[in-house]
Hints:
421 residues, alpha/beta, TIM Barrel, 2 domains, nine-stranded mixed sheet, five-stranded parallel sheet, 12 helices, 22% strand, globular, binds (4S)-2,6-dioxohexahydropyrimidine-4-carboxylic acid, binds zinc ion
Amino acid sequence: xxxxxLRGVSVLGAEPTDLLIRDGVIASGPATGADIIDxxxxxxxxxxxxxxxxxxxPGREDAETVETGSRAAALGGYTAVFAMANTxxxxxxxxxxxxxxxxxxxxxxxxxxxxxxxxxxxxxKQLAELGAMATSAAGVRIFSDDGHCVxxxxxxxxxxxxVKAFDGIIAQHAEExxxxxxxxxxxxxxxxxxxxxxxxxxxxEAIIARDVLLAEHVGSRLHICHVSTAGSVEVLRQAKxxxxxxxxxxxxxxxxxxxxxxxxxxxxxxVNPPLRTAKDVHALxxxxxxGVIDIVAxxxxxxxxxxxECEWAYAxxxxxxxxxxxxxxxxxLGERWDLIAERMSRTPARIAGLTGHGTDLAVGDPANxxxxxxxxxxxxxxxxxxxxxxxxxxxxxxxxxxxxxTFLRGEPTVLDGKAVK
Length: 421
Ligand code: DOR
Ligand code: ZN
């Protein structure tokens, strides 16, 4: 196994130092025989951890596979991703989650941890085999019907009760379906102007309010996916102040983009929950800095060309995000490296109980890390993405920061900004 010496690297923005990677861990002592990487001007972060990735395999390998999504993740600085369950077949059995887990191991580019469905077929009628998925080789801890809301309160309560036994988490896609029937974009001034059916903020906020009460009642862990409104932030703030075991994520796109973009009718901006207003964006940024929102998660949602390059009403919601997440967050937060590491690596790893990721990069820690050049700026070119899909909302946009290298347990998955395999 090759050793690497990262010469003159800034760990989390600190004074330049040399970092030795040997036998898969951060090491000390002489760097004899190590490959030397000139890391002057580069910042080392613990490898990023994404709690919300759609890898599309099994079922839509034309849009993404575990391997292509893993490569996109590594290029984005990630060392672990959690794969959402809305595949075909749905990841609602031990068999499917083990398949995804095995494909992740075979690709070997990031640690792929499957998320199990809460309900059979994501249909919201009957609990899936949560226990069997938890005790499978994949060791599932997080369950979500993402793409769909677990709308039935009794089922949601049961799910929370069930996972409490093994300290599992229910990750909710908060969308009251009766309030979003036919919705095409955020309900507000812009939807009125465009004449498109709106997705009101309250459809998200009402489910979060209900579910924090249920989680409080049961004493279980709840995670809220892709929080998108200022009102949701206030519900979460109150719940956390009461000590409810709730965590929450925000996506890079909800931190940067607004519903005004829908005026272009370009379906690349169609996403669920929808892009909101500048006021919401402002509240989400503040909440992320404060910690009311715990983490950034990509909701990387690759879609085939025919599902995206069509009329707005027929297009699938979602955008790819793994390869642009860190640059977007850098543009939003600036070079606050410790905060970035907290929101994109340490806290997601801690929420998921994922050991070996999100460390302080101390001697003896597994060498799961990424090297960023903060002075570089890149124009996003969809044809250069490693993802099998091209649906990025940032095409032609200049973003700060370039991921130069990523290491998974001491092995480079990305070097010189290129995937190693
Ligand atoms: O925009 C979205 N796309 N939101 C979701 O909840 C699901 C996701 C997908 O699977 O494409
Ligand atoms: Zn979702």
